[in-house]
Specification:
89 residues; mainly alpha; 2 helices
Length: 89
């Protein structure tokens, strides 16, 4: 049989182990909550990461169209000005 001191050591070790297991379970629940928040932030169709990327791509496409319109207009104006200068001289 175990002596009284050995039983006390075993009891202390079991209490410590139980405390550590409880801490581990709490941390595991916290980790699961964090993962759920990350999934919500990434995959939410209205405000998640993919929705933001989609909006950014749409904005980029519209900006490219505006830029090409401005560039084409400027080139046309320069060409018209050069044509008028050449034909009026």
């Amino acid at each position: 049989m175990l002596g009284e001191e050995e039983q006390h050591k075993l009891t202390v070790m079991l209490v410590e182990m139980s405390s550590k297991i409880e801490t581990l379970l709490d941390k595991q629940e916290e980790l699961a909550d964090n993962i759920n928040q990350i999934k919500e932030a990434v995959y939410n169709p209205d405000s998640g990461l993919y929705a933001r990327l989609r909006e950014l791509e749409q904005w980029k496409e519209s900006q490219a169209k505006v830029q090409w319109t401005i560039i084409t207009t400027v080139i046309g104006l320069v060409a018209a000005t050069l044509y008028k200068m050449i034909t009026s001289a």
